[in-house]
Amino acid sequence: MNRLRATYETTERDYTISVDYTFYWEDGDYITPGAHDIEVTEVYVDGYSIPLRFFNDYIYESLEDDIIGHALENK
C-alpha cells in the first residue's frame, strides 16, 4: 500500500482551513480494482488547531471531495 502525507488548504469567507491528512492507496490492475482511504490527522482554522471530532462531525462532509481530489492529484 502506498502512502502520502499532505496538507489541503482552503480559504472560506474570512478564515483559512488547513487539513493535514494521510492518503493510502493501492493501484488496481485488470483483475483487482484500485482502492484508497484517507485519514485526517490534524485540522487548523487560521493557524489554531481544532478538535478532530468537531471537524469530522460538522465540517468534513463539505470538504471531503476537495480533500480526496487534492490527494489524488498529488499521489
Essential attributes:
75 residues, 1 helix, 31% helix, alpha+beta, 48% strand
Summing up helix and strand content along with how strands pair, one would put the structural category as alpha+beta
Helix content: 25-40%
Residue runs with pLDDT of under 50 for 5 or more positions: none
Return the string of H and E elements.
EEEEH
Estimate the global geometry from the Cα principal axes. elongated
Helical region count? 1
Number of self-contained structural domains: 1
Annotation, overall tally of beta strands: 4
Q: Over all CA atoms, what is the radius of gyration?
A: 14 Å
Spatial ordering of strands, largest sheet? 1-2-3-4
Mean pLDDT: 94
N/C terminus separation = 12 Å
Q: What is the topology?
A:
Layout: E1 2-12, E2 15-26, E3 35-45, E4 48-49, H1 52-74
Can you walk me through this structure?
It is elongated, with a radius of gyration of 14 Å. It has one domain (2-74). The chain is α+β, with helices and mostly antiparallel strands. Helix content is 31%, strand content 48%. Strand 1 (2-12) and strand 2 form a beta hairpin.
What is this entry, summarized?
The chain is 31% helix and 48% strand.
